[in-house]
TrEMBL record:
It is found in: Cytoplasm. Substrate binds at T126, I127, D128, R163, M170, G171, R172, E223, R256, H262, L263, Q264, R265. The gene is pfkA. It is an enzyme of class 2 (transferase). It catalyses: beta-D-fructose 6-phosphate + ATP = beta-D-fructose 1,6-bisphosphate + ADP + H(+). InterPro entries: ATP_PFK (IPR022953), ATP_PFK_prok-type (IPR012003), PFKA_ATP_prok (IPR012828), Phosphofructokinase_CS (IPR015912), Phosphofructokinase_dom (IPR000023), PKF_sf (IPR035966). This is ATP-dependent 6-phosphofructokinase. SUPFAM superfamilies: Phosphofructokinase. Homotetramer. The keyword DNA-binding does not apply. Keywords: Allosteric enzyme, ATP-binding, Cytoplasm, Glycolysis, Kinase, Magnesium, Metal-binding, Nucleotide-binding, Transferase.
Length: 332
């Protein structure tokens, strides 16, 4: 292996920059040349390549987002699109590729390994923490801290005005962020796609809380929640807004809704995200040097390891019921 490339793909996540930095510097340390690819798989198809040196990644360890830019690319899902990408990489003399992204990006890695001579490996980079075989995906720690900080601020104003607040956080298919930040932020109710509930249950708990003298009620809801009010969600374009309407209607209480949106994806990566990203990326380079392919770097029991991509992208049960039950007990 002489020359490797690195790209970021899918939704950006804080910690991608420390991962890129570690790929580049570990590779150079081992005598490899490094090519940066801009805009994810789109950049592979359009040959948006540039040489990366040690200095190319100076002063980025603390920066959110990704200096390589990220994209979603439908063309890479087609055989014709991928053929262009393989030809571009061969022309450039690239024989190894590190992809930093979520489950969709990892499916792209599988295709590259199955259809070309290029050895490709993946690093889990997504704030959703929705991959199997790893306790951790890069970005989740920063996103959790951002959400908890927002909850703290909303709690101040909720208490002052004795209001109910619905806070919607990210998680299209996974309630992980809502669950963990709901526990850390002391939310009264946590609503996630994986667990059924009725709006009446939520309203009853809010009403009981205020009767007992609670000064506020915080409901944390994941953006992926659909049932049991799919029609209302469709109408409002968001489950948080739908839930806010239902609470107002059923309890008559003053209710405000905050949709945290994309601020959850930004920000300087936390120390944990920087450390895990740096370690995972170094491992990715090492396994490429070792001749491995089609693997994802994982983090289990405080150890950096390697697993099959096929196992990592299997849909997992992301809700830990012990944590969910504990959050309920603590918010009584
Ligand atoms: P996030 O978790 O932030 O959504 P992701 O990596 O899952 O990140 P996706 O949009 O699902 O984000 O995938 C990123 C890109 O990976 C897609 O735009 C596409 O270019 C590529 N990709 C996804 N699925 C496949 C597939 N089955 N075959 C080839 N390429 C794919």
């Amino acid at each position: 292996m002489k020359k490797i490339a690195v790209l970021t793909s899918g939704g950006d996540a804080p910690g991608m920059n420390p991962a890129i930095r570690s790929v580049v510097r570990t590779a150079i340390y081992h005598g490899l040349e490094v090519v940066g690819i801009r805009h994810g798989y789109k950049g592979l198809i359009e040959k948006d390549f540039f040489p990366m040196k040690r200095g190319s990644v100076a002063d980025i360890v603390q920066r959110g987002g990704t200096i390589l830019l990220s994209a979603r690319c439908e063309e890479f899902k087609t055989e014709a699109g991928r053929k262009k990408a393989y030809a571009n990489m061969q022309e450039e003399g690239i024989d190894g590729l590190v992809v930093i992204g979520g489950d969709g990006s990892l499916r792209g890695v599988q295709k590259i390994n199955a259809e070309s001579d290029i050895k490709a490996v993946g690093i889990p980079g997504t704030i959703d923490n929705d991959l199997a075989c790893t306790d951790y995906t890069i970005g989740v720690d920063t996103a959790m801290n951002t959400i908890v900080e927002a909850i703290n601020k909303i709690r101040d104003t909720a208490t002052s005005h004795e209001r109910t607040f619905v806070i919607e956080c990210m998680g299209r298919d996974s309630g992980y962020l809502a669950l963990m930040t709901g526990l850390a932020g002391g939310a009264e109710y946590i609503l996630v796609p994986e667990i059924d509930f009725t709006p009446q249950q939520v309203c009853d708990k809010i009403t009981q809380g205020f009767k007992r003298g609670k000064l506020h009620s915080l409901i944390l809801i994941a953006e992926g929640v659909k049932a049991p009010f799919a029609d209302l969600t469709e109408y409002h374009g968001s489950p948080g807004m739908a839930m806010g309407d239902l609470i107002r209607e059923k309890t008559g209480m003053e209710t405000r809704v905050t949709i945290l949106g994309h601020l959850q994806r930004g920000g300087s990566p936390t120390a944990t995200d920087r450390i895990v990203a740096s370690r995972m990326a170094a491992k990715a380079v090492e396994i490429l040097l070792d001749g491995q392919r089609d693997k994802m770097i994982n983090y289990l029991n405080n150890s950096i390891g390697v697993c099959e991509i096929e196992n990592a992208i299997k849909k997992t049960e992301t809700i830990n019921m012990d944590i969910y039950n504990l959050a309920n007990i603590l918010s009584m």
